[in-house]
């Protein structure tokens, strides 16, 4: 099935800090939506996990907001990331990238603390610090995390295929266990060149090789738009 860019009226972006603003005026998703003049739903977050992507994606499925006229961008992230619910917050822990989604989100009558390697160093709440340290030190199996991810990926991508949802897969360093090749099922965008040429510059002048500069966001956004204008085959 050929997807005409003119049929798309809404864009959803799921991912981690790579797809968040991290101090910029616009994420690449916002830029794409502005250029195409379509609605934008931002579901990327600093320290976001594949578990969070799964949760957010199927929330939209259950509410009926995804269909053949909605463009979905999936930016998988590192395997060993998670969300930890806790009943209270420490005001010092309400931190996040400037302009981006906070590292602690208020939800489910409590707070979701985002977890990744060494994230226990970020938070002040003693119980959260201990849980994260113990999880990192004693509860990690590559095989187990990879199996979970494969099931998440299978569920989301097959739902998109079955429901003919135009889908873009971001391909690069964050999804190191599943590197995609161009195919007829999904639009695959490799962001390695943009990351190499347009890294975010830190306050000390060093390059952040894991995130894009604002220029990089625009370059990547244009790359996606150009692929969409080619009316890529979706099956």
Question: Which labels suit this protein?
Answer:
alpha/beta; 2 domains; 33% helix; Rossmann fold; 10 strands; 21% strand; 6 helices
Outline the structure in words.
This protein is an alpha/beta fold and 235 residues long. It has 2 domains: 5-80 and 143-229, 3-Layer(aba) Sandwich (Rossmann fold), CATH 3.40.50; 82-139, no CATH class. The chain has 6 helices and 10 strands. The strands form 3 sheets. Strands 2-1-3-7-8 form a 5-stranded parallel sheet, with helices on both faces. Strands 4-6-5 form a 3-stranded antiparallel sheet, with helices on one face. Strand 1 (10-15), helix 1 and strand 2 form a beta-alpha-beta unit. The chain is globular and about 50 Å long. The mean pLDDT is 90.
